């Protein structure tokens, strides 16, 4: 699968970014290179390969540092009001954000 110039323009429009003619050509090449790489990775047989929790786990046992899941802040109206005090728009304790999807 390969992306055309029109495909890259459409992707840029969906991402709400403007691309110059040079950038459009560069991104078309970059995206097509990525798709080629993904195709080659897709052809690799991974049957029976266990997923790793860390990139170095195949070389040595790695113990990931974890912390206890403990609530450290009080859930009070005053605390929520302090957190929401600099929100540009809010209602009923939640942030209001503008619609970004056309």
Automatic annotation (TrEMBL):
GO molecular function: asparaginyl-tRNA synthase (glutamine-hydrolyzing) activity; ATP binding; glutaminyl-tRNA synthase (glutamine-hydrolyzing) activity; transferase activity
Name of the top EC class for this enzyme: ligase
UniProt keyword annotations, A-Z: ATP-binding, Ligase, Nucleotide-binding, Protein biosynthesis, Transferase
One Pfam family from the record: GatC
Organism superkingdom: Bacteria
GO biological process, one term: translation
Protein biosynthesis recorded as keyword: yes
E.C. code: 6.3.5.-
InterPro entries: Asp/Glu-ADT_sf_sub_c, GatC
Entry annotated with the keyword Cell wall biogenesis/degradation: no
Record field: catalytic activity: L-aspartyl-tRNA(Asn) + L-glutamine + ATP + H2O = L-asparaginyl-tRNA(Asn) + L-glutamate + ADP + phosphate + 2 H(+); L-glutamyl-tRNA(Gln) + L-glutamine + ATP + H2O = L-glutaminyl-tRNA(Gln) + L-glutamate + ADP + phosphate + H(+)
Functional description taken from the UniProt entry: Allows the formation of correctly charged Asn-tRNA(Asn) or Gln-tRNA(Gln) through the transamidation of misacylated Asp-tRNA(Asn) or Glu-tRNA(Gln) in organisms which lack either or both of asparaginyl-tRNA or glutaminyl-tRNA synthetases. The reaction takes place in the presence of glutamine and ATP through an activated phospho-Asp-tRNA(Asn) or phospho-Glu-tRNA(Gln).
Quaternary state and interactors: Heterotrimer of A, B and C subunits.
Protein family per UniProt: Belongs to the GatC family.
Protein name as annotated: Aspartyl/glutamyl-tRNA(Asn/Gln) amidotransferase subunit C
This protein's encoding gene: gatC
């Amino acid at each position: 699968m390969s992306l055309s110039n029109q495909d890259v323009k459409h992707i840029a429009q969906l991402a709400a970014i403007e691309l110059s003619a040079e950038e459009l050509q560069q991104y078309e090449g970059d995206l097509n290179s990525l798709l080629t790489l993904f195709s080659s990775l897709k052809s690799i047989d991974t049957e029976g390969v266990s997923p790793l929790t860390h990139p170095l786990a195949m070389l040595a046992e790695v113990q990931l540092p974890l912390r206890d899941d403990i609530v450290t802040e009080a859930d009070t109206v005053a605390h929520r009001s302090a957190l929401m005090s600099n929100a540009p728009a809010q209602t009923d304790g939640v942030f209001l954000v503008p619609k970004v999807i056309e």
